[in-house]
Amino acid sequence: MSIMARSVIDKTAEKQEIFNQIRALAKEKNAVILTHIYQRLEVQRVADFVGDSLMLSKKAEATDADLIAFCGVHFMAETAKLLNPKKKVLLPDIQSGCPMADMINVDDLRAFKKEHAGAPVVCYINSSAAVKAESDICCTSTNAVDIVESLSEKEIIFVPDKGLGEWVQLNLPDKKLHIYDGFCPTHWQITPLEVDKQREKLPNAVIVAHPECNPEVWRKADFVGSTSAIYNFVKDHKATQFVILSEQGLVARMQADIPEKEITTVFPLPLCPNMKYHSLENLYLGIKEEFTEIKIPDEIIEPARLTIERMLEISNRRKTWSGPVNQG
Length: 328
Ligand code: 13P
Ligand code: SF4
What we know:
Number of helices: 14
Bound molecules: 1,3-dihydroxyacetonephosphate, iron/sulfur cluster
Strand order of the largest sheet: 2-1-3-4
Helix content: 40-55%
Oligomer: single chain
Number of strands: 12
Strand content: 5-15%
C-alpha cells in the first residue's frame, strides 16, 4: 500500500471517529445540529437537518432540543435564537458572518426609510437581528416574491440584496421596489462573460442561477431560483447536464445526491469562505464547551421575532423545501 493511500484511509477513519463522537455528544446533551447546505459535505452529513435558511428556521422554531448547534452564518444562528429564545444557540465558529448582511446596519436602514417614507420594509433573512427589528417583514430567496406580493402597498423598501430585489421586481411589475445597494460577494464573483463561455462549452446544458447573482448573470440563465428551488429543479428536470450559478456547497451536495446527472459550476469556484469555517473538529468542541453562544439584546428580540413570524405565517401555507434532510 502506498503512503498516499494509507493517509487517505487514516483520514477517513479519523473523520468517522469524530463523526461518531459528535453524534454521541449531541445525544448526551440533547443538541440538534442544523446545517446550511453551503457547508462542507462532512458537516452536512453529521447534521440532524440540512437545508436552506427557511427550512432551518422552521426546524429551529419546532425543536424541543436543549441546545441548537448551528452550522451556518451568524444571521442564521440569530434567526434560530429569535424563534426559540429560551434555547441556547451555538455558532461553533463565530467568524462565520455574512458580508452581505454586514452591508446594512440600523442607521443605514433608518436613512433609507427616510428617503422612501411610508413604504413598508421587507428585509432579506440575510440581515442582522437589529435590522430585522427595524423592518416590517422578513423573506428568504424561496418566498421573497410571495412575501412582497402579500403586501397591500405598491411601494416597498427591499433590503439589503439588490440581486434578489431586482428578481422580485421583475416578477411583480405592479410593485415599485426601492432596493438597497447590498450584494453577495460570492454570487457576484460570477460574471456574464463566464456564463457566455459555459453556453459555448456546454450547449446542451441547462443553466441555473440563484437570484443573489448579478442580474446581468441571472438574466442569461434558463432558470432562476432559491437554493431549494435549484435543488428540486435539477432533481426533477429531464435534462442530464446542468451548470449551477451558485455556491459550491450546494453544487457538491447535488453532485452527491443526484449522481446520474452531470452537474458543474463555473471557475473560479463560487465559494463562500464564511460558510466554510465550521469543521467537524470545531463543531465537536462547540457542542462540548457550549460556544459560541448567540446573545441578542432583549429590546431587539421581540420586534425582530415578529418580523420573522410574519414571514413564516405566509410561507407556512406553501410547500417549500424538499431537498436533503438528514435524520441523524
Ligand atoms: P438560502 O436562503 O437559499 O438558504 O440562502 C442563504 C444564503 O446565504 C445564500 O447565499
Ligand atoms: Fe452571505 Fe453570500 Fe455567503 Fe450567502 S453566500 S452567506 S449571502 S456571503
